[in-house]
Amino acid sequence: MTDPDRMPIPTREFYMKLLESPDLKVFFETHAGEMEIPPFHKFISEICARSGQVPEQVIKRAAVERTYGHQLFNGTRKPSRDKVIQLAFGLGLDLNGTQRLLQVAHKNALYPKLKRDAAIMLCLEKGRDILEAQTLLQSLGLSLLGER
Amino acid sequence: MADALLEEFLAGFDGEHYPADFRRDYEALECLAHNEQGETLLVKDRRTGSLCVAKCYPDVDLPAGIGESSLLQGFHHSGLPSFISEYRDESTLCVVRGFVEGTPLDQLAAAAPLEPRRAVGIILQLCDILNYLHSQNPPIIHRDLKPQNVIVDGRGRVTLIDFGISRIYDAGARADTLCFGTRHYAAPEQYGFAQTDPRSDIYSLGVLLCWLLTGQEDVEQGKSAIQDRRLLAVVEKCTAFDPRGRFKNALQVKDALNGRTQRRRALAGLAAVLLLAGGLLAARLTAGVHFREPLIAQAARAALGIPDRALNEEDLASVQQLFIFGETAVADLDSFDNLVDEFAHGGGSQTRGGIASLDDLVKMKNLRKVKLAFQDIHDLAPLAELPGLEEIDLRNNPVESVAPLAGMASLNTLILFDSNVSDLTALSACPNLTLLDVGGTPIASPAAFQGLSALRTLILHKSQLQTLDGIQAFPQLELIHLANTPVRDLSPLLALPNLQRVIVSEDMRAAVEALGGNAKFEVEYQ
After folding, report:
1. Which of B54, B144, B191, B411 has the fewest CB atoms within 10 Å, measured from its CB?
2. From the list B5, B6, B29, which residue is nearest A143 (CB)?
3. Cβ contact, residue pair A114, B15, below 8 Å
4. Residue A139: its chain B contacts at CB < 8 A?
5. Residues B150 and B196 reside in one and the same domain
6. B392-412, pLDDT tens digit by residue?
7. Cα B384 to Cα B389: distance, rounded to the nearest angstrom
């Protein structure tokens, strides 16, 4: 993932490319870069660059403390799972994008059988912002993002 | 809008089929793992707020008193998780154990193999844990010893988790009926042709040591990369295909790692050789080192992952990093940063650790990073004997003079927040010093750090800085932190060509506005 033009492609799209590829070896050679897991801070910076967002706005929308947020973007801190999810809201990611973000951060995926994760998944899928997500968690009597 | 979202959620959600009393007592926060045998969940105790781990098995046929729950209940060892409670209904069994704070080995060693000394320190602790398990009557065999199941906490202490496929050794059985374990780490007999016994765990221990040293789980490939012949011999003996060719128990592995077997054999001869050759050096290398500061000894142990024996000079030579915050010594930077965060968010006072002398550091010739916050350190002279230092963090210490650090070529980061330094010009011969934090000091003007022309990040918040006159002599500066200083004229910053970010406090808003539209840097209010 050193080339900023070669962003990770969603799994479904990736799978289609695999089916279309004439040869498994060629497929692996062509897409080697996309299969690597990039460093988290580079990954979020690339999402920003691609979508025309600046870290400052993302950090604000993620409701992450400012200095800590910048440390996540420059790679000096590693985020907790909740902070990754908050950043997903800040980056405006959908559910697929969020699962990929968690994977890149080496965190466990959102798991729909758990009430808290399911509520977060619904908010991401519906494009709700973090305040709405926190409100839903609170009304369900669940821990808020970043609380623990 | 929130109500509509809530209704939509409640209409669609059909999960959490766990026993009702389990759901009453615990909130499920995260699924750590799941497979056909069940789920491992990170849960929060609603009564106390503490984190626990729950294993939930959907198999209703599991009789009471069998499996992980009963094993955990019998454990009394600091390297094993504690049993908390068990919940069951007609369809699910949930076993709750203590959450082990720390990092799994697979993440800890993901980037690069560990230093041999640290790897051996971890294996030695695992030897003690396995010895405890295998010494039970009848013995308990873990059968899934792998990096993901070994947690190392901030102080370097090891805990072995996941007893989901462990079994009690049955002396009468001939072969295991089910195949369990993880590829590479599982001993050959775990594939079903013989019964597993404690030597199956010894096999996995050997694979783990190989992986820690080389990054290779395939022992045949990894062996060629192990430089140390003694460690290579341990890996080979642990992973012999025939269990009879392996070490008989974990204590034998421990002895071999400590070199005790050879030592016993050669004891008489060695004594004579030592006398004849005047082998004072060898004796010194293996003798325990006396520390002036017990807290520094603790930090060195944490860094090396050796919690339970005296450190010798050879050990000290392999310490590269030391982290102490107040009275707490930790093993790595993440743990140190967490303590800083806790302090910053706690807002309370911090107890000092009481370290007054840095003399103990002189023997750690390969130290690169030293972070000793909230101590009573005045004198930096011992650091002059450590030319490889790259990062020194002595925040909240009564340091006055940095003269001993003059000319330190590899130094790139110096943090002296809340110290008494007022003159840093002695560091003008440190060509790689790019980050300086002298916040909370009596420094009043850039003249105090004249000559430090490589600086890129300069932290001055809460200092006595009156003026920025002269700041143009630091053209490499990219970030400057000025919050809560008396400075009111920011115009000298306009002369800095590479400046990207300036952090100020609300009371400096007028000074920022006075810059008009001339600033090319970003201003952040704190």
Report:
1. B191
2. B29
3. yes
4. 2, 6
5. yes
6. 999 999 999 999 999 898 999
7. 9
Same structural domain for residues B182 and B35? no
- Report yes or no: B325 and B266 within 8 Å, Cβ to Cβ: no
B326 falls within a domain: no
At residue B86's C-alpha, the angle toward residues B84 and B88, to 5°, is: 165
The overall longest dimension of chain B from CA atoms, in Å, is 88
Specify if B347 maps to a domain: no
Q: Return the sign of the alpha-carbon dihedral for residues B117, B112, A55, A90.
A: negative
Domain boundary residue among B82, B98, B114? Answer: B98
Tell me: do B163 and B29 sit in the same domain. no
User: In A, which residues are within 8 Å of B27 by CB distance?
Assistant: 116, 142-143
The interface pTM score, or ipTM, of the predicted complex is 0.80
Spell out which residues of chain B touch residue A136, defining contact as CB-CB under 8 Å: 2, 5-6, 9
Q: How far apart are CA B322 and CA B361, in angstroms?
A: 9
| Count of pairs with CB atoms under 8 A, one residue in A, one in B | 69
- Mutation target for A interface from B3, B6, B47, B106: give the one with most A CBs within 10 A: B6
Q: Is the pLDDT of residue A76 over 90?
A: no
Q: Same domain, yes or no, for B128 and B61?
A: no
| Chain A positions in Cβ-Cβ contact with residue B44 (cut-off 8 Å) | 143, 148
CA dist list (Å): B150 to B126, B153, B160, B201, B212: 9, 10, 5, 13, 12
Interface of B with A (CB under 8 A): 1-2, 5-6, 8-9, 12-13, 15-16, 27-32, 34, 39, 41, 44, 51, 107, 110, 334, 337, 522, 524, 526
Contacting residues of A for B6, CB less than 8 Å apart: 136, 139-140
The reply to whether B116 and B239 lie within a common domain is yes
B131 and B235 inside one domain: yes
Total number of domains constituting chain B: 3
Q: For B182-235, what is each residue's pLDDT tens digit?
A: 667 887 777 655 666 889 999 999 999 999 999 988 999 999 999 899 999 999
Q: What is the CATH number of the domain that holds B73?
A: 3.30.200.20
User: What is the arithmetic mean of pLDDT over B342-356?
Assistant: 81
Is B190 a member of any domain?
Answer: yes
The single-letter DSSP state of residue B130 is H
Return the amino acid letter for B461: H
**B60 plus B204 within the same structural domain:** no
Tens digits of residue pLDDT in A8-56:
455 566 566 666 666 766 666 666 656 567 899 999 999 999 999 999 9
Looking up residue B114, the CATH number of its domain turns out to be 1.10.510.10
Q: Give the residue numbers spanning the domain of B214.
A: 103-262
CA distance A42 to chain B (A): 16
CB contact under 8 A, B30 and A135: no
Same domain, B403 and B519: yes
Contact with chain B for residue A6, Cβ under 8 A: no
- Contact status, residue B355 vs residue B378, Cβ threshold 8 Å: no
pLDDT band at B287 (very low <50, low <70, confident <90, very high): low
- Is B355 part of any domain? no
Point out the residue among A77, A106, A132 whose CB comes nearest to the CB of B107: A106
